[in-house]
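Quick start: read one record
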Amino acid sequence: MRLRERFSSRALVVYFLIGIGLIGIGTFIYSNYLIQKIRQETETTSRIFAKYASGPVMDEAALMELIFQEVIQKIDFPVILTDSEGNPTFSKNVSSKDLGATAADLDRSHEPIPIIIHHAEDSTLVGYVHYGLSPFTRSLQILPFLETIFLIAFLFLGFWGYLIYRKSEEEKIWNSLARETAHQLATPLSSLVGWLEAFRAKLSKEVYEGINEDAQRMREVLEKFSRIGLPPRLIEKDPKPALLKSVAYMKKRVHKKVKFIEQYDPLPEIKFDDILLGWAIENILKNGLDAIGSNAGTITIKTYTANGAVIEISDTGKGIKQASDIFKPGFTTKKYGWGLGLVLTKRIIEDYHKGKLILKETGSKGTTFHILIPKVDT
């Protein structure tokens, strides 16, 4: 069963609730982390102010000791002290042994802070502080980008899920409509077959067989519509009889200017549903005949083996304009077409039979389709 068929409205609601919950929990945890970090820095600053303000004015040595114990020892960002000549004298949170080169790297991001001692009206430059960003500060820089990316991803997945859900609901409506149509037409068709049998003795053999064949064909059409949306009945066997049946049916319903060329090489056994595969083949044949129209033309059917069973169907019609859109629902080049034939055909081949429907070529000289269904693994 495909993903969009499993994606229900309840799953969509659960997804949004989980996503909102994760965003809320993550924001709460990280916000608390930031609050604790800011609180620690505030306590450190307050402790320095309290010690400096509670008692006699500190001399220079005591003040430097206080700053060293309460500030420098507790910093978590890289810092290098140099003298006035640029020679390193102290470092913190620096792993490199080449302090001069590291200081130069730090200066590219942040201008060094000069250390100046003032004596009355004189001042003396004693060194520089070279610093970088702490892990905490760097995390604050990238946080908005991470939150934006996460939010965009969440909204994208939510929108994608909504599209899948809407597509699933549309398919349910079409499937139900197709099965209900088949159910409603089954009764009058059975009555028609009964009347045909009642008048059998009054009809010529040719007329009776023609009407009976069409009635049986209508039964198959109703069977197709009743099976839409249901799992296929895959049986492992040779696909050639099903192909011949579909070709023979179409050959009886074309004008005399159309010629059929059939080249059948042996095919491997594959798993397929007779009715669905026949429907797909007939859709492609019908499209080819419509492209030829009332003109003279040729339909060529070939079979060969290439990693499975390959059925090649070609016509000498007028080709397909906007070929890139042929598998889109509603796209049609016919005046009264619904644009569902190739869509259903592609779904039958690819979704139900795990094969490939390929538009090999199309143009003014005609169109060629390939149906590839993989052979059964032994």
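The CA atoms of residues 121 and 261 lie 109 Å apart.
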